[in-house]
Amino acid sequence: MPTHNAYRRRLLQALAVLPWWSSRGVAAGAAPDLARIIALEWRPAELLIALGVMPIAVADVPNYRSWVVEPALASSVLDVGLRNEPNMEAMQRLRPSLILLSNGFGPAPESVAPIAPTMTFRFSRKGERPLAVARQDVQDLADRLELPGRAQRHFVAIDRLLDQTRRRLAAKSYPPVLLFSFIDSRRIMVIGKRSLFQDVMDRVGVVNAWDGDENIWGSTVVGLERLAQFSQVRGICFHRGRQDPLFDITQSTLWQTLPMVRERQLRIVPAVWFFGATIAAMRFCQQLEQALESAA
Q1: Residue of 73 and 7 predicted with greater confidence
Q2: What whole-number distance in Å separates Cα of residue 255 and Cα of residue 233?
Q3: Do domains 8-161 and 174-293 have the same CATH topology?
Q4: Which H or E run includes 101?
Q5: Residue 47 backbone class (left: φ over 0; alpha: ψ -120 to 50; beta: rest)
Q6: Three-state SS for 83?
Q7: How far apart are CA 205 and CA 219, in angstroms?
Q8: Structural contact between residues 261 and 249, judged by C-beta atoms closer than 8 angstroms
Q9: Residue 184's CB: how many other CB atoms inside 10 A?
Q10: Phi/psi at 91 (nearest 5 deg)?
Q11: What gap in Å lies between CA 19 and CA 15, rounded to an integer?
Q12: pLDDT tens string 247-280
């Protein structure tokens, strides 16, 4: 049975062709202004790192390291406050060459435009799937930074990982999966069929067990008791470290009666950013295969 380290090696091998995984590649190809880019939302930070450029600052760095985890931020990355209320004075002092934003979350572009030029990204576009949008965002940012070759190498790595994973999983039969993470001790966020993760599951041939309502981001928040409705599924719970209430909840009577717990079909995996882009998709692909292949 493949181990966690074996899966991680596969992901590292796929990521090895990406310039952001090599500090030498970043230094060699970086233009002067690439060293002074701020990302005020975590998804744009991921887009930037996918192109081999580490931001000079990111909003809410501590929670990034709990919720996003990978791609890891360098120790030199500065924190410029909350994602929805960044510290404008701190950003001014950094003299950024570009500020990256997400549409619909965080400050409006016009509020930070006096500090530096901005570029805004949308998580979704009407009629387009999240993974396709993420790929286009990588391409658009690469064009803005004049790094088209890095975008193309990144896309090759994504497709290789997804195709290889699909071939490995096709050799066996797996139950539908239910993806969720705890919001607090009574509520969970479930990942639905409009999500980035669904696009990955479609590519690798895995069925999503959730068929209920979901929001425009492909997720929904429900009570913990809803898990009792799911039997003969593989539950995959994303655990976000010390802040997560999961291990306190596992002592409750309700938890012990859940079908996926009694059937030994629950797997706990490290956090992956649900609202991320291409690197989040790759990280989820690795976690999904590990959760399906692992024994109880």
Answers
A1: 73
A2: 16
A3: yes
A4: strand 98-102
A5: alpha
A6: coil
A7: 20
A8: no
A9: 11
A10: -65, -40
A11: 9
A12: 888 888 889 999 999 999 999 999 999 999 999 9
Task: Tell me the residue type at 92.
Answer: Q
Dist. CA 19–CA 217, nearest whole Å:
29
User: Which tokens belong to 75?
Assistant: 């120790």
pLDDT at 20 over 80: no
Question: Is the CB of residue 206 less than 8 Å from the CB of residue 169?
Answer: yes
pTM of the model: 0.85
Q: Are 172 and 206 in contact (CB under 8 A)?
A: no
At residue 274, the 3 state secondary structure works out as coil
Q: What is the structure's pLDDT at 296?
A: 61
Q: Using an 8 Å Cβ cutoff, are 86 and 59 in contact? A: yes
Q: What's the topology of domain 174-293?
A: Rossmann fold (3.40.50)
Fold for 8-161, please state it.
Answer: Rossmann fold (3.40.50)
Domain residue spans of the chain: 8-161, 174-293
Dihedral of CA atoms 196, 200, 202, 207 in degrees, nearest 10, equals -90
Q: Which residue has the tokens 């959760």?
A: 291
Query: Which one, of 233, 228, 232, 131, lies nearest residue 188 by Cα?
Result: 228
In DSSP terms, which residues pair with 44 in a beta bridge?
none
